[in-house]
Design brief:
Order of helices and strands: HEHEEHEHEHEEEEHH
Distance between the termini: 26 Å
CATH architecture: 3-Layer(aba) Sandwich
Number of strands: 9
Shape: globular
CATH class: Alpha Beta
Strand content: 15-25%
Strand order of the largest sheet: 2-1-3-4-9-8-7-5-6
CATH superfamily: Class I glutamine amidotransferase (GATase) domain
Largest sheet: 9 strands, mixed
Length: 255
């Protein structure tokens, strides 16, 4: 993530701060820029590689915060680790430990806290715009990025309804529920702000057939196949500063 270290508001984390667990569910759903952002903010990140069979912890209190990344599965699937992650999110919530979720992770977070996850009317794939809100809460989370149109990377067929009391941080033209915060503590982000050029290439290599199918169906929420891989350095870097801003506030709540 070029340029992040020079612009990041670095903090030296006290030794008493607990590590932040980052859950990776698939190879394509790697943490990407999330690790760089956490380290730029002075926080230790520990990746829990569910994709490789690593066990999901049962006690959230060992961590200062939890981050759940994306994946091709549904939050309603019967994989044992999904039930374990839902239980871990609820344990974190009971103890006031912040949780953040990206794509599938946002859906797991919504479902665990009393929201809903369902099939969306159409898959949202590729470079899709979202609009950040202009409320006081949105200003606190987005900073200078509040009230802006942001180009973000998407790859999802499901959507979520947030739990009661959630405050909207962003909406999209093709999928309205894009970002929310719950009790100024838990962060739900549908889009993939964490993408790097390598991860975009891997997404297309593994799942490009899905994008080609949606193009054939004239899905307006799917980018043109030939456009997805263009100008990746600039496009991905443009998402990392908003991601840094969100995590600056989120980590300030982490222990």
């Amino acid at each position: 993530m070029n340029g992040l270290n020079s612009s990041a508001p670095r903090t030296d984390a006290p030794a008493t701060f607990k590590p932040i667990a980052v859950f990776q569910h698939t190879e394509v759903g790697a943490p990407g820029a999330v690790i760089d952002v956490l380290e730029a903010l002075g926080r230790e990140a520990r990746v829990v590689r569910v994709v490789d069979g690593q066990e999901v912890p049962s006690d959230a209190s060992a961590f200062g915060g939890l981050v759940f990344m994306g994946g091709s599965m549904s939050a309603h699937d019967s994989w044992p680790w999904i039930a374990q992650e839902l239980a871990l999110i609820r344990d974190a919530d009971r103890h006031g430990i912040p949780v953040a979720g990206h794509c599938l992770g946002s859906q797991l977070l919504a479902l665990a806290l009393g929201g809903e996850v369902r099939r969306h009317s159409q898959p949202e794939i590729g470079w899709c715009g979202i609009t950040t809100e202009t409320s006081q809460t949105a200003d606190e989370w987005w900073g200078a990025h509040a009230g802006q149109d942001l180009q973000t990377f998407q790859w999802h067929a499901d959507t979520f309804e947030p739990p009661a009391g959630a405050v909207r941080l962003a909406h999209g033209a093709h999928c309205r529920n894009q970002a929310f915060v719950v009790r100024d503590l838990h962060l739900l982000v549908q889009s993939h702000l964490e993408m790097t050029p390598a991860l975009v290439h891997l997404s297309v290599e593994r799942n490009g057939h899905q994008l080609a199918r949606e193009n054939a169906l004239a899905n307006p929420a799917a980018s043109r196949y030939e456009d997805v891989l263009l100008d990746l350095s600039r496009r991905t870097q443009s998402m990392h500063l908003p991601l840094l801003r969100l995590y600056t506030r989120w980590t300030s709540r982490c222990r």
